[in-house]
Amino acid sequence: MKKLTGLVICGSIVWCSSVIGADAPSLEKGKLLFNNEKLGTSGKSCATCHMDVNKLKSAAAYDEDKLVNIINQCITGPLEGKMLDSRSAEMKSLVLYLKSLKTK
Q: For residues 18 and 26, what is the distance between their CA atoms, to the nearest angstrom?
């Protein structure tokens, strides 16, 4: 019974941490979103137009507000998607990813 209780507690901790972490912004999530066609309905991703991410190094120097505006222009324009909330984990992840290009 103690082993079963221990397994249930451990499983609950792992599950809770994955649920909580699922909404946290991350560099990896930003990279996945950049390459994902699900940001819009056009069948395009950010990478469709920005195949050479090295050319985005200058954009990495922009402040966060400017990046948010540019990202949303691309999403609502060429990607034909819905604007992301600037406070969302998705937007923060995309900004993190673009900012990381400055160091590459």
A: 13
- Whole-prediction pTM value? 0.77
Question: How far is residue 8 from each of residues 13, 15, 17, 20, 86, measured CA to CA in Å?
Answer: 9, 10, 14, 18, 37
Q: What is the rounded distance in angstroms from the CA atom of residue 40 to the CA atom of residue 26?
A: 20
> Which domains, ranges and CATH numbers included, belong to the chain?
25-103 (1.10.760)
Taking only the tens place, the pLDDT of each residue in 43-60 is 999 999 999 988 899 888
How far is it, in rounded angstroms, from Cα 78 to Cα 36?
Answer: 14
Place of tokens 């909580």: 20
Q: Where are the alpha helices (DSSP H) in 1-104?
A: 2-22, 27-34, 46-49, 64-76, 89-100
